[in-house]
Structures are given as structure tokens and as C-alpha cells.
Amino acid sequence: MNRALGRRVLCMLALGLCAPFGYVAAQSSHVVRPGDTLWGISGQHYRKPGRWPEIQQRNSVDEPRLLQPGTVLYFADGRALGEDEAMVLAVTGQAWQRRPGAPEVRVAAGAAVKVGDTLATDAGSFVTLGLPDGSRSVIPSHSAIALEAVDRRRIGFRLLDGSIESQVRKQHPDQEFKIRSRSLVLSVRGTRFRVRAQDGQVVSEVLEGRVAASQGSTQAEVSIEAGQGIVLGDAADRPTVRALLPAPQFASQPPSADSPGVEVTQVAGAQGYRWRIAQDEMFLAPLVEGDSAGTSLALPTALDAGFYHLQVAAVDEARLEGMPGNLLFYMPQPGGTSQWKEDGRIELRWAGSSARNYRLELSRDPDFAVLVTDQKGMQASSAIVGPFVVGGRYHWRVSETQDGEHYGPPFTGGSIDVPAR
What we know:
The protein is mainly beta and about 425 residues long.
């Protein structure tokens, strides 16, 4: 992954489950962080804090004072999502759209997907779709789907190859959300699940809610609850429901530029592990994924500076992916350094410019929910913090401003380990 890809991802996270019913914007957005307010977000994006009611209305925010971290807010005047179409919200890598009677075209964010259209992804690529009922579906690498139905009452996909992952909003009694594969039909009424075709089998895992699975109109439905999966081989086989393996625990510190790998604990019955990295906690805009035969995961080293979410699942002998373990980590920009002073304090340094002002934040938590230090308006490219009364790991990050008021996203940072006294 290169730096251009990282910048592109920051512009494609129009994926929040908080969007108004039937409306999706494929333009600029903001991922809510701890401590964010609509007043501050409006000032950052519009340069006018007083426009916060527009953000509240566009995103159906019920209580402006209780913003949930991880929520995605929309700003730009994107077009309304038609009742008879899905919208491509995000693309990582290369993907293609085929429409009957028309040449194949490369997919771009904002593209309309209508009934009869097919979407296919290349290696290392992802497409995220927004649907009229507010649901979201991710088409991972090496996959192809056909859209069979799309309006406010009916959503239908046909899985042609690979897999599809969906987070479905709770359906009303007269609504339906279905995914058909070669030998299985999944009916959903609000849940989070995956389904994929592999080596002549169809497998599905339910992470939240419940899915009803059937092999056709003449077969009885099988209920798959949260924490369960299903494996179906031949069309004559009865679906087999199995418990998913538990989520792995993280046995090492979060990855960093110097140590990009991460270690998880062994899960009994695991034949391997599947991991994925995204910049949103719902994993609706994945950046990269991979497999590991053991508990040591070699993650990519070329991530841009910023926050990332790592998700790891154990894979059993039937190749069902288990419940995911999640880890938030911060990847600093190369160049951010720390150096201990003789008096027990630490000097933090970063690449800076005399034409910019900086903000330094120091926290005990990687999500910076509670700040130990928050220094704004700094004109230097270093700062001394401490001494520290409490030992443990501290996290720091630096952002910059050109107008002296509105700070951009952090561009560097890191973590420091303070010995216990």
C-alpha cells in the first residue's frame, strides 16, 4: 500500500450506519473521534462552527452532545440515492461493473448500481455499497456479485464468486434482504454476517443478529444465530450449523512502524487466522487483508500515519471464520521520536515548519479518550513532557493548523513506556 492509497482512503469513508434513510453521500466525510462535537466538526470542515445544525439534520443525529466515536458524518452535497439503485461508496484497488448491453467499466465511488448489474473485484481490492434501506455490503477481493433486486422493500444479491459481507439495518415486516448463492438462500432481518463460495462449498458466519438459511422454496429454513456458521457442500446436503471459534486475544503490543507484526493467543481448534485492517471500526472500508498459518501476524509496513482498526478471526477445519478480535492502533509517521532526559522527563520531536502551529496530545489510551496533555498553538517541533507519576504505556500524537484554530488529522506520533515507580 502506498501513501497515495492512504490519502485516498481518507476521502472514501462515506460509510456510516448513521446516514438518513434513503440518502447516501459519496463525497467528504468525518469519522467521529472521542471528544468531537458538532460545533467543532462544523468549524473544521465548513470553517463556520454555526453550521452544525446542517450536519445534525443531514446525518439524523438525535442528540448532538452524545456523538458516538466511529460514526461517519457527511458534509458535501452528494446526490440522493435513488430507490431503484445501490451506490458505490468506496473502492480500494480495482473493481469492474458490467451492465447488460454495455461495455465493462471500472468502478468509481459514487457510481450507481442497478438491477442486473454485476460487480467484480480484482486481487487486493474492495468495494463498499450503500443501499436504499441504509444497509451496507462489502465485496472483498476476488469476488463477483449480481444485483437482483433493489428498492426500499427488497434487496437481493446473487453471489457469483468469492464472498460478500453485509451489515443490514433492522428490517420492517414488509421488507426483505436476501443473498442467493449456488445452493443457499440467506434471508436477513437486521444483522451482521458473511457468506462466500469456496471449493464447491458455501459457508456463512453470523456475527450479530440472526439469519434464516434455506436451499430452496421446498426446503425448511435453518436458523443461524449470532456466533454460529453454516457449511453446505452438495445441493442435496442438509445445511450444517456449527459454533464459531471464539475471538483471539492479542498477546503483544499494538503494531508500530518499528514493529509492524502482532501476536495473538492460540485458539483451540484453529487451523489458521484471517486478519483485516480498516480505518473505520465497522470494517466497511477495508484497506488490506491476509492469512496466517500461526499466531504471529506479519502486517503491512507501508501504512500512512493515522489510526487503524485490526480485526483477527480464527479459521476452523471447515474454513469457517470465527468471531473477530479487534484492536485499535496508531501508526506514526516516520520521523516522530522520543528521548529521555536526565531529570526523568521525555522530549518528543517531529518534523515541523516555522510557518505552522502544532497541537500535542498525550494520553494513556490509544484512542485518546482521556488526555494527560493537550498543548495547542505550539510553534516548535519538539516538546518536553513529564515527569510521570504513574508508570505504563503513554501514547502521543501531533496535528497542525494553518489558520491557528482548526487542526487537521494527526500526522505523527508514537508511544512511550514509562517505568513504574
